[in-house]
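Input for the complex:
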Amino acid sequence: MFDLSGKKALVTGASGGIGREIAKALAAAGATVALSGTRVGALEDTASAIGKECPILPCNLSNLDEVDRLVPAAEDALGGLDILVNNAGMTRDNLFMRMKNEEWDEVLAVNLTAAFHLSRACLRGMMKRRFGRIIGISSVVGVMGNPGQGNYAASKAGLIGMSKALAHEVASRNITVNTVAPGFIGSAMTDELNEKQRQDIMSTIPAGRLGTAEEVAGCVVFLASDAAGYVTGHTLNVNGGMAMI
Amino acid sequence: MSDIADRVRKIVVEHLNVDAEKVTEKASFIDDLGADSLDQVELVMAFEEEFSVEIPDDAAEQIQTFGDAVTFLQKAVG
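Predicted:
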C-alpha cells in the first residue's frame, strides 16, 4: 500500500536534513528519486546514503531561469515525474519593523514562488499520465505565526493556500496536492536556537521532544503512496501535538 | 475540411467521450460537448502534440468551438 516501485520523484532541498530523509524514505519505498539543492557535495552524500542511482540536479531556487529548467531536467533524467516534493526552504528572520525588502523577497522567492513554478511545470506530464503527487513542506509557523518570521510564515501559509487551490483544479485528474506542516524538528535550523528558546518551545510540545526528520519523511511517503489516493488539499501536521488544528 | 478536421475530431471524441456527430463546426467544447475548463487546457495540449505546434495562451483562449480549433490549426500548420 505504501509501495512506490516504478514511481519517479523529485525532491528539492535534498541536501538538507529533512529533504535528505524524504529522499531516502521515498527511495526506500521503491521510488527513483532525483535530488535537487544548491550544495552538490551534500547531494552526493544523500545519493550515497540512498545507495541507488539518483540523478543530481543542482538548482538555485532564487534564480527563476534555473527553476524553470529543473522539472524538464528531472523528467529527462527519470523518464517522467510522478511525485514532486517542494521541500526547499530558507529563513531570513527579522522583526517585522526591521525586515528588509530583500529579506522578504528572498524567502518568498525560494519558499513559495519556486514551488509555484515547479508545480506548474510538472502538471502537464501528470495530467497526461493521470497520476501525480505534489507535496509541499510547509510549517506549523505558517498556521500559527511566529515572531521574527513574518516572511517565513507568509511563505509557508502561502504554500498551504496554493496547494488547496491547485488541489481543487486537478483532483479529477488523479493528482493530489497536499502539504506537510512540521513543528519543531531537530535540524540545522533548530540547532541555531538558544537554550532559553529551546526550553520555551519544549513547554509547548505535548510530546516533550523535538520531532525527527524521519517522522516528517514518513508522512511524505504516505501522501505519495496509493494509501493516500483520496487525500487532497490536506495539511498534515507533524508537530508532537503543539498545535492540534 | 480535411485531414486536419478529422484529426481534431478524433482527439475531441476521445478526450471528451462524445459521439462524432455531435462534433460539428459550431459545437462549443464547454457549452455543447460537456468540457470543463481543464478539459479545454488538455485539448489544447493534445492539439499541440498532434500537430507539433505551440498554441500560445491568448490563442488558446479564443479556441471555443471545434471550428475555431480547426481554423487555428489549419493556419498554424499551413
